[in-house]
Amino acid sequence: MSTADKIPGLMASIGAVPDSGRRFDIPADLATRQYGISGALLEQLQSSGLPMRQRNGAPFFDPYDLANASLHLGLSSIQRMAMRTWARTLQKCDESATLQANIKFLPAAASPTDPPLHELRVPLRGNAVHATGVIYSLLEQFRHYRFFMLPEVCRWDMAFIEAHGICECGGASTLLTMRARAMDIEARHCFGLLIAEPFSTGHYWTELRINGQWIAFDPLLLQLLHAVTRLDPGKWPLHRSNGAALHRLCVIEAYGNTGAPVLQGFEDQPGIAQPVIVMDGQTLVVSLPTTFIT
């Protein structure tokens, strides 16, 4: 499908997002450098309805709108580069039985005398668990949803997600957990790390109890990686667990007024990340330096 053919569907999804959630703080030159959107393409998107605001005679755009445009039009960006590292983790988990991740983090209660960064060693073992029966059918429902960066005003709004078929990891995992429980499937909503080299990042997913064990499932992420990174859908179908690339920090048991999860405590070694400066001042929040060892 050509770029021109992709734009109407993209703009329909962008248009569904409430304007109240937008920050118009990205100038046109940064749209090119950071999101890979050329000046000509940016003008084409504007003529198709891309929201923008004029400031001192120059257009400014919302970062989520630009990130979604870049991702779904197949452009080169930091976001796409990060997603390729997520896919590589899954591929490496299949290739090595002894792979471990060495993750550096700053403890929440760090004192001036502590080392600047602590280390967390996480084993990465290939997990070939495939769901069957009703759980398989439940996971297949997420084939109809599209990964889309959303602002806080609608990120956790289940009615918005179901109406428009767009969500990111937090909303998708909330919806999956709710639907599983409605089907009397034991489910828990989790937050932790999506492990990748060189940076692991914060992530939400759902765990379902199968034969007495909690098994992680993340169909939206796998579908995204099929499209963006060419992760093999034959080896990594939506109903396969990707738990090998995840490290749980906490189980979510409460939600705020907007539906956002309340993270009440971390298991293992609790920590917070120092933002990592990547390009043009952009920060990847909860980005932890990570190396793989065997």
What are the SSEs and their pairings?
Blueprint: H1 3-16, E1 26-27, H2 28-35, H3 39-47, E2 53-55, E3 58-61, H4 63-72, H5 78-95, E4 100-107, E5 118-123, H6 133-140, E6 146-147, H7 152-155, H8 158-164, E7 166-167, H9 169-182, E8 187-194, E9 199-210, E10 213-217, H10 219-229, E11 246-252, E12 271-272, E13 276-279, E14 282-284, E15 287-293
Parallel strand pairs: 6-7
Antiparallel strand pairs: 1-3, 2-3, 4-5, 4-12, 4-15, 8-9, 8-11, 9-10, 9-15, 13-14
CATH architecture of the largest domain: Roll
Estimate the mean pLDDT confidence.
Answer: 88
Which percent range describes the beta-strand content? 25-35%
Rounded to the nearest angstrom, the distance between the terminal CA atoms is 41 Å
What's the helix count?
10
Secondary-structure class? alpha+beta
Helix proportion: 25-40%
Q: Write down the CATH class of the largest domain.
A: Alpha Beta
The unreliable regions are 267-284
Q: What is the general shape?
A: globular
Order of helices and strands: HEHHEEHHEEHEHHEHEEEHEEEEE
CATH domain topology of the largest domain? C8orf32 fold
* Major beta sheet summary: 8 strands, antiparallel
Tell me the radius of gyration.
20 Å
Q: How many discrete structural domains?
A: 2
- Note the quaternary state here: single chain
Task: State the total count of DSSP E strands.
Answer: 15
Q: Overview of this structure, please?
A:
This protein has helices spanning 3-16, 28-35, 39-47, 63-72, 78-95, 133-140, 152-155, 158-164, 169-182, 219-229, and strands at 26-27, 53-55, 58-61, 100-107, 118-123, 146-147, 166-167, 187-194, 199-210, 213-217, 246-252, 271-272, 276-279, 282-284, 287-293. It is α+β, with helices and mostly antiparallel strands. The protein has two domains: 3-72, no CATH class; 78-293, C8orf32 fold (Roll). The strands form four sheets. Strands 4, 5, 8, 9, 10, 11, 12 and 15 form an eight-stranded antiparallel β-sheet that branches. Strands 1-3-2 form a three-stranded antiparallel β-sheet. The radius of gyration is 20 Å and the shape is globular. Mean pLDDT is 88; it is low at 267-284.
